[in-house]
Amino acid sequence: MSRLARLSLVTTVLSFLLAAAGGLVRATDSGLGCPGWPKCYGRWIPPADHHAIIEMSHRYLASAVSIGVVATCVVAVLFHRKDRIALGLGLAIVPLVVAQALLGAYVVHHELAAWTVVAHLGLGMAFAATLITLTVHLHVERTGVGDPITRRLLGAGALAVLAQLLLGSWVTGRGAGLAFTDWPLYGGRVIPVLAGREDAALQFAHRTWAYVLAVVVVMCARRARRLHAGSAPAFFATAAAGLVFVQIGLGVLNIATRLNAAVVTAHLATATLIWGALVAAWASARRTEPVTADAPARAGVTRERLGFGPTVTAYVALTKPRIIELLLVTTVPTMIVAARGMPSVWLMAATVLGGTLAAGGANAINMVIDRDIDKLMKRTAKRPLVTGAMTARAALTFALALELAAFVELAALVNLLSAVLAVSATLFYVFVYTLWLKRRSTQNIVIGGAAGAVPVLVGWSAVTGSLGWAPVVLFAIIFVWTPPHFWALAIRYRDDYAAADVPMLPAVASTQATARRIIAYTVLLWAVSVLFAEVGRMGDIYLATALVLGAGFLGLAVKLLRDGTTQASMRLFGYSISYVTLLFSSMALDQLVRR
């Protein structure tokens, strides 16, 4: 092990101890234990007060980290100038640690204003990530052929954990840690009342994001173990997955102990370890040899430079605009029902825009992941990543930009709950449906269809700031509608799915068996749509429409069972689109007429 490798490792360990000490400072309200900076009450040795001792210990650890950073930088410059990555990272950590120290002084000067503490934590995590990347670069040998998708997913997972860290810091800063004092319920309710309660909304978002993260990190670990078995990426990703469940347990213990300082400190320290493990997994995945041929080359095409118009068309195609149309069909009527009339036009526009960005980003990520099977299917053979209109990296960058824009736009112009729901739907669609179920289970579209049902929750929460049983039943309508809608289309393209080895139900079962499943879901859909008339307090217009449309849906499903032809399946598919359009339109009309 080289001198630089030892230095970077020691400094990395010290930086994690520093993060834990920072959590202790926050948990014990010791941030102003030493009101001056850098000395404590004008002295280098703090007085015999536990707040002062904790705060000054944190500062001394920060000094030790600073010394380690300077030593690491000097050794990198003197002895590793030929290693451009080590040199660059060794130089980068110096301004980061200086900025962190200055920001720490600013935090004390502004008496721990919530936003300054969050910024301090975020900059600290950026510094830790740079240091971890350097340490991994020096300790992990370059081996084998890597999987770029796994690397990008690990990076996305790390960013998702960082978002949770910052959100948790904001929750603490706003005093929202005990907005709900029970678990897993929220004030005795499955679905909390959030309207007018910033603390409740923050706590609900923090808990919800934790559950989503558990799924995301576990999926990252599963993929890393499968494609990087026995290597550093698999080890670090598996460690992160195990720590996620420890973290959830500590979160529950936080509530049970009413934010005991030791538990709060352990909670932050574990979150930091999860972040560090995923960054290490991402950095070590970069140490595998990259795949030399990009997606277009693997598809047997050569990427050509396109003009402005075709390039824009290709990026629009990534978002699957025809699928996004369903978002408009369901979100706007849902908002009208939630408002019991016409809500603000600006609110509807902001909600639809944010939902469109989130859905477009999810669809683009799906195309990146599925580009290997898209080239095998006639229905998807003209997608941009198959034809070579763009690279996978460009598409993924575009998709992540859309997701970030969606979250920021919804959080700023609508509310935090809607933003969290929209991005959570993307995570579910990518990790649960695309990466886990699509290529493994005939239940892929059944479970994965939940992502397409989330826009109604976004629309409802945009108006009310909360959820209830009415939006849950609306969610159930889309959830139950999705399998018969998609299976009807999949019957026509069953050979495509078989060629791509995707176990979509019509590709592995007979048309008759598929039709029987479609009938079962259609009956359930009919029942749920009628149930909404009661739960949603709808009028006769909606109830009559639901009854008639449900009868028509069932009639076409039975006809498919009898005929078993592609023509019958496509008639059912076409009707399913009209069904959801007319059903949700009748909801809006019902409320507008009754005003």
Structural class computed from helices and strand pairing? mainly alpha
List the quaternary state of the chains.
single chain
Give the rounded overall mean pLDDT: 84
Number of helical stretches of at least 4 residues: 24
- Give the total of beta strands: 2
Shape: globular
Q: Main sheet, how many strands, which sense, barrel?
A: 2 strands, parallel
Helix and strand string, N-terminal first? HHHHEHHHHEHHHHHHHHHHHHHHHH
Strand order of the largest sheet: 1-2
Instruction: Give the terminus-to-terminus CA distance.
Output: 76 Å
Low-confidence runs = 290-304
- If you compute it from the alpha carbons, what radius of gyration comes out, rounded to the nearest whole angstrom? 27 Å
- In helices, the fraction of residues equals over 70%
Q: How much strand?
A: under 5%
Question: What structural keywords apply?
Answer:
single chain, 77% helix, 595 residues, mainly alpha, globular, two-stranded parallel ribbon
Structure description:
It is built from 24 helices and 2 strands. The chain has 595 residues and is mainly α. The longest helix is centred in the first third of the chain and has 30 residues, at 50-79. The radius of gyration is 27 Å and the shape is globular. It starts with a helix and ends with a helix. The model is unreliable at 290-304 (pLDDT under 50).
